[in-house]
Structure formats: C-alpha cells, structure tokens
C-alpha cells in the first residue's frame, strides 16, 4: 500500500515529459511575441515562418527537437494570452539591458518584413510590445527602418 502511495505521489511531482522550457522562460515569451506579431495581420506567410525559425536557430542554437518544442510551447502560450504583458514582463526581468530589448524589437521587425509587407496591425502590435518593454518610440522607428533596409538589401 505504501509503495502505491509513493508511486502515485511520484507521478504528481515528476515531470510528465521532458520539457526544457518553463512557462516563465524568456525564450517562451519571445516565441509567443513572435507569433503575436506574425499572426497580427491574419496571414502567416511561409517566408515569415522561415525567417522566424532561422532567427530562433541563430539566437538560441537549439537542436531541431528543442526548437520544435520551443515553437510549440511558445505558440500555445501566445494563443492562450489575452495581452502582451505576461511575455513582456518575463522579458523585462531577463533583458535588463535596454540594448537587448531594442535588439528584440529589431528581430520582430525582421519577421514582419520577411514577406515584404508591413501592415498597420503589425505596427500596432510592435508599438504595444515596445511600450511594455520600455523601448522609446525613436528606437522602435529606427529598428523598423533598419529592418526594412535589411529586407530590401539597402543598409542605413
């Protein structure tokens, strides 16, 4: 009887699957925000998806399995969210350097421009994210301009 109780308690406390990413992991927050931006205009293009995956590979150097797990967890978290605050507050705790938060915005802009189009809705989403991250309007606009230049091959 005691063995059964111990086994049951072990199943409650043991991880149900090997999940490397905790809910407050800044990588999950970043991926969730990426999905919020990609899905903002109602059209997630193959180019946006590819740019997104490439940026994640470059930024986090994950195995293909861990990359897929991160994307799945981040997408689910983004789908369940009612606003951006949860994710931006997780990121603010981990990105204490303002330059890192500005760089994050640049990555979001790179995803927006991956398909060659920018919508007002995407602008609005990034404006809200920038505001919650404490990134100035000036830096937000500069990052947008630089991402547009990178997308067209012109560099500012």
From TrEMBL:
Q: Which InterPro entries match?
A: DjlA_N, TerB-like
Organism name: Rhizobium deserti
Instruction: Please list the residue ranges annotated as the Co-chaperone DjlA N-terminal domain.
Output: 28-141
- Pfam families the record matches: TerB
Spell out the CDD domains in the cross-references.
Answer: terB_like_2
Identification of the protein by name = Co-chaperone DjlA N-terminal domain-containing protein
